[in-house]
Amino acid sequence: MAMKKTWEGRFKKTLDPDADKFNASISFDKRLFKYDVKAGMAHAKALVKSGIISVKESGRILAGLRALLKKESSIDFTVYEDVHSAVETELSKAIGETGKKLHTGRSRNDLVATDTRMYMMDEIKVVMGLIKKLMARITAIAGKNTGVFMPGYTHLQHAQIISAAHWMMAYCSMLKRDHDLFGFVLGRTDRLTIGSGALAGSNYSLDRALLAKETGFKNVAENSIDAVSDRDFAMDFLYASSLTAAHLSRLAEEIIIYNSSEFSFITIDDTFATGSSIMPHKKNPDIAELMRGKTGNFFGALMAGLTMIKGLPLAYDKDMQEDKVLLFARLDELKAVLTIAEKLLANISFNGEKLDVQLEDYFMYAVDVADYLVKKGTPFRDSHTIVGQMVSYSIDNNKPFPKFEEHELRKFSGKFGGDYYSIFDPVRSVNSKLTSGSTSAASVKKQIAQAKQFIKH
Q1: What is the DSSP-derived secondary structure letter of residue 25?
Q2: Superfamily per CATH, domain 109-357
Q3: Is 0.85 surpassed by the pTM of this model?
Q4: Of the listed 260, 276, 392, 422, which one is catalytic?
């Protein structure tokens, strides 16, 4: 049987059961329980400081709220409309009439925003920790594969030779940006809204600095109307989650491609692959495919959130109840995807022999050949044209670059000498890159060291 509503005094009839079920948020906002209790503790301290309740009353409320935290698992939340009414009613049941004084000077409008912000601040830190854990896995893999070489691609065609470590560290760079972005979102979420009331503020002189300190906020919302209607922090999280999901989807896509029979660059351990119900030989990269597939959920939630707040009149509207549906589902899924991505990478290995075969595409040395001529005084644009002609000749004569004889080389440029043949070495090629952030061994090792330093802090 549903409990009485905290707002039912004005009504002559009870809410239709279907409307009641449709209106209720307890099924998802009950996860805010301990934050609602914590906000209540802070509010009780502010009320006693303002002389609204006595020290004795405050003590009873605080003791009652602490007791509620211990009995959370035994509360029947299904009888309540939302987590706020659950806390208020359970408190009053436990300590009597004094419990009814806790809601003085506040509204569910400012309370839900505060609860959600507190919850998300804690959860964002968890997400940031998972991102760092995934970065640590990537740096570990990269550190073991600085001497493994593979094709680098543009337009999904062989471009230049890179190290497998350099490829991995590209994703580490993406994740670092994701970590930084969530740090930004954390800062935007850090804003106390209690004291804003329903929208106009409170009739009581509540110490908002005290409220902020007690609830863990560094900042206090400046405008009470904006405070109860602001869901930018939710949109920020949905956007950051979408971008992280997109990065993980790109990683998953390459794992899927590189695991295919056509590539076979990597092998996925049996513990992270599945089979076919009809084809006995199949070994499918289902985990990576789900990582890729779930990305649409994040994009959809972001669009749903933006649509939810579009055109909403100030201040609070019930539409905003849906923010938690979007936030909580994507939060749970993001943590799951980050966790499984780290485990998946721990169960992937590079196939050196298959990669070595790919390196026999000597056109990936074309830029190295062009730069060889540049170093001998040929303008780059001219050397580009010369090497392009060499590529055409190689295709027409089915003759790879290293097999060109000296008299053939002289047809293209008199600057070719015997040292031309030393170009076609993957170690030499990657280490010829001199800029920071490049695929050279020195650069990649520096990238790994910098990432490890970032992960530590």
Answers
A1: -
A2: Fumarase/aspartase (Central domain) (1.20.200.10)
A3: yes
A4: 276
